């Protein structure tokens, strides 16, 4: 999370260079941009994914998660409803990596599991914007998504006893965020922060119901933060 906050600080620095747009009579860029019924674009960004664990019994020994930065890339299709509301479809590719530390083991080979995930995501979002102020327009966004985890290993015959941590391929959840549309001379640039929360259980338990890795886990759900930079 600290790494993402540092990136957002850079984002704010970039935005601060545009404060001249708040002057009394700014030169308005792209005045007809938001009048289109359909709009297209793409986004690049960073993510930091975590896991929320649910346990069968509270034994005071939680699974530790070491998070790292991943990246996002995708396309945007936007349909205008009115001056303040838009429906957006943002299919994209996301890569994330998490390292799990299981308690109760003396061997690192048994205690550590590296989880690399490549998600193909399909978010359907509603974007609610304020009135445009010069060349700025804040907004909030939220909606639902479904995704396919290409690195899930759901069908693998190996489990943690063979060093394999398995997850389900199909995940669904919801997404919330906020951002600012910045109208430049040639395109609309939109930095945003998103929170992503899976609703479906992603754990494929080990074959042994008393497994020291998954025996006490009733479910795991992904949660994470995005910083996206959108160009339209």
TrEMBL record:
<feature type="signal peptide">
    <location>
        <begin position="1"/>
        <end position="20"/>
    </location>
</feature>
<dbReference type="InterPro" id="IPR025665">
    <property type="entry name" value="Beta-barrel_OMP_2"/>
</dbReference>
<keyword id="KW-0732">Signal</keyword>
<protein>
    <submittedName>
        <fullName>Probable protein-translocating porin PorT (TC 1.B.44.1.1)</fullName>
    </submittedName>
</protein>
<feature type="domain" description="Outer membrane protein beta-barrel">
    <location>
        <begin position="31"/>
        <end position="202"/>
    </location>
</feature>
<dbReference type="Pfam" id="PF13568">
    <property type="entry name" value="OMP_b-brl_2"/>
</dbReference>
